[in-house]
């Protein structure tokens, strides 16, 4: 039963994914299983899931010199199941606001969706960008970078080759003046499920795929550089990791289906920022 995985690297077509991000070696992929206390007089609940920190670094010479920025896009398939004990009420699953709006609705890849927040709590569209933990409404907007360890930042995503500017810290990586990529594109995620073990049992789990995206340039369209899958399963004994696994010639067919659904779905009557 795997509950933690230390630093490890995974080679894909045009680079390397690394558990542990861009920092010193550490355990950066592990399960979460803890008791959560609420308001006085309410029973404690159980929170289960996983946490991951993983980064992508392009291989030297594998990425065209015109490409200036690399970002990460994640898809998710949430197949968590809550079952009532002794006829108790089944609480609805809590997802990101608008979760499932962009999910594939049929076929072998039903349920897969781009893992991104699009709406605020009032149901207003706040984001049309599919890049993980980044948000903007139009291609010309500054990106809001939602890094839990750095706070929300706004950065100019114009490319050095088209007038200057710096790339988003953490979740994207860009080239420096010397033409080399500086650091790695980083993804941190902590998907969990919270439930009352006196009322429900939990099963199923969550599956994910992360793909590295070379953002478009003035002359070249965006392109995928490779992907990995990961996730966790749930049962009476607690969460178990589904190990990080490279996707041969990724992204996978499920990823392609989720991208196709994202590209044709409207939010607030307008198209999303498109993916290749």
Overall description:
The chain is mainly β. It has one domain. Strands 1, 2, 3, 4, 5, 13 and 14 form a 7-stranded antiparallel sheet that branches. Strands 6, 7, 8, 12, 15, 16 and 17 form a 7-stranded antiparallel sheet that branches. It has a 3-stranded antiparallel sheet with strand order 9-10-11, with no helix packed on it. A hairpin with an 8-residue loop joins strand 4 and strand 5. The radius of gyration is 19 Å and the shape is globular.
Short structural description:
This protein has one domain.
**Overall strand count:** 19
- Cα-based radius of gyration, to the nearest Å: 19 Å
Low-confidence stretches: 151-169
Order of helices and strands, N to C? EEEEEEEEEEEEEEEEEHEE
How would you classify the helix and strand content by structural class? Answer: mainly beta
- The termini sit apart by 37 Å
Any key phrases for this structure?
single chain, 276 residues, mainly beta, 7-stranded antiparallel sheet, 4% helix, 40% strand
List strands and helices in order, with pairings:
Elements: E1 4-5, E2 9-12, E3 15-19, E4 29-36, E5 45-58, E6 69-78, E7 81-84, E8 113-114, E9 134-135, E10 143-147, E11 151-155, E12 172-174, E13 185-189, E14 192-195, E15 200-214, E16 223-234, E17 240-246, H1 253-264, E18 266-267, E19 270-271
Antiparallel strand pairs: 1-4, 2-3, 3-5, 4-5, 5-13, 5-14, 6-8, 6-12, 6-15, 7-15, 9-10, 10-11, 15-16, 16-17, 18-19
């Amino acid at each position: 039963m795997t509950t933690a995985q230390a630093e490890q690297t995974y080679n894909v077509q045009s680079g390397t994914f690394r558990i542990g991000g861009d920092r010193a070696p550490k355990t950066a992929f592990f399960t979460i299983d803890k008791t959560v206390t609420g308001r006085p007089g309410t029973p404690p609940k159980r929170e289960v899931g996983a946490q991951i920190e993983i980064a992508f670094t392009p291989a030297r010479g594998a990425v065209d010199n015109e490409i200036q920025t690399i970002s990460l896009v994640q898809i998710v398939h949430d197949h968590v199941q809550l079952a009532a004990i002794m006829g108790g009420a089944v609480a609805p699953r809590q997802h990101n606001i608008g979760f499932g709006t962009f999910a594939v609705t049929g076929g072998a890849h039903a349920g897969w969706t781009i893992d991104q927040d699009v709406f605020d709590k009032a149901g207003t569209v706040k984001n049309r960008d599919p890049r993980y933990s980044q948000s903007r409404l139009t291609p010309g907007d500054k990106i809001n970078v939602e890094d839990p360890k750095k706070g929300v930042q706004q950065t100019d995503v114009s490319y050095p080759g088209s007038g200057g500017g710096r790339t988003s810290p953490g979740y994207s990586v860009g080239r420096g003046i010397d033409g080399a990529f500086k650091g790695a594109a980083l993804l941190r995620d902590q998907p969990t499920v919270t439930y009352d073990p006196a009322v429900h049992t939990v099963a199923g789990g969550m599956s994910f795929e992360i793909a590295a995206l070379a953002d478009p340039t003035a002359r070249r369209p965006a392109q995928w550089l490779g992907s990995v899958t990961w996730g966790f399963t749930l049962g009476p004994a607690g969460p178990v990791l589904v190990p990080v696994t490279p996707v041969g010639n990724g992204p996978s067919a499920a990823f392609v289906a989720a991208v196709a659904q994202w590209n044709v779905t409207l939010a607030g009557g307008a198209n999303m920022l498109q993916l290749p």
